[in-house]
Amino acid sequence: MKILITGGAGFIGSHVVRRFVKNYPNYSIFNLDKLTYAGNLENLKDIEHSSNYKFLKGDIVDEAFVFEIFKDFSFDGVIHLAAESHVDRSIKDPLAFVRTNVIGTVNLLNAAREFWEKDKVDKRFYHVSTDEVYGSLGIEGLFTETTSYNPNSPYSASKASSDHFVRAYGETYDLPYVISNCSNNYGPYHFPEKLIPLFINNIIHNKPLPVYGDGKYTRDWLFVEDHARAIDLIFHKGKNTETYNIGGYNEWQNIDLVRLLCNLMDSKLKRPTGSSEKLITYVTDRPGHDLRYAIDANKITEELGWTPSVTFEEGLSQTIDWFLKNKPWLDNITSGEYMDYYNRQYQQ
Ligand code: NAD
Ligand code: DAU
User: What pTM, to 2 d.p., does this model score?
Assistant: First the structure.
């Protein structure tokens, strides 16, 4: 099998690439990534010389390039993760999200449609999406696969649009596809613009921890390797035209999560208990901030036997240890473009 994984140099993509390269020596894994600020080949150092792995640098928005690689490599499957992924950046620059998340996805769909037209057997387009397409929950309830779409940020609107295009290509052109919508991931290689790695980095450097609004927003956190395992299962055993929700059954209000993180960091950095909590600073809220996400993952559990394997306490502790052990990785990322972004976002 020749599999194209897009966005493989990013956070989740690098875990998926590593898993496929290691677990499927008979497959050829092609990682297509533009290497934006979020893409980093350091994330794949340990497998970069594997004989079943090839890196393709390119932009999914470039139609000619996308068609060329489909022609050159005759992929049997696509696992599409490449995206602009940060909500705050989408508020500042929505068009960048339309380009990559919508037009980029449609370019991939067009190439798959054309090159698979004569033989769709054993072909599959797997679109990796987010629970944010469903909008916000109130204090009760869970997102299921039939919850209607109600995206509130430019990021989630662009992901919702891409999900609709994938479904439409299934209906209109009979393209074999599957979609998953996952909750918030965390773990090694997480880019430090997102809550958990940003706060780990700021605690290390004794910088303020900018909690948006009242901190009562709720997310459902999943360890990234559990997401990669779910993607593997869905790619191999999921049913065409189906959607699978993936979540951790692990809801945390931001402020409670931040307090837990502060305590763990104090103990790992051997600082007096309470020192990191002193860094908590309430700042202006994110516009259009979704109150709560929470996933009903019954379908993937019942159909495919998937459940999260790592508890939050274990996963968070492992994640902190990884960041503390990989300071050079973090230091390389948190310079240049990152500092410009950071200063603009947090007005320092
Ligand atoms: P990320 O921002 O860490 O990585 C995105 C990757 O895509 C980077 O390597 C980047 O270089 C690449 N990329 C961006 N634009 C590109 C383009 N035009 N052409 C080619 N490559 C491009 O993102 P992530 O957090 O790993 O998310 C991966 C996917 O999973 C996204 O589709 C996202 O919507 C989805 N998702 C993320 C989460 C989460 O919690 N992070 C949860 C659910 C779903
Ligand atoms: O739910 C899945 C989504 O999770 C993915 O589709 C997105 O790609 C991913 O970025 C993530 O989106 P969130 O907006 O939930 O993640 P983020 O880490 O940006 O924020 C988590 C919560 O923390 C959210 O309520 C906003 C809050 N927050 C975030 C930052 C960066 C803060 O309070 N302060 C901050 O500085």
Answer: 0.99
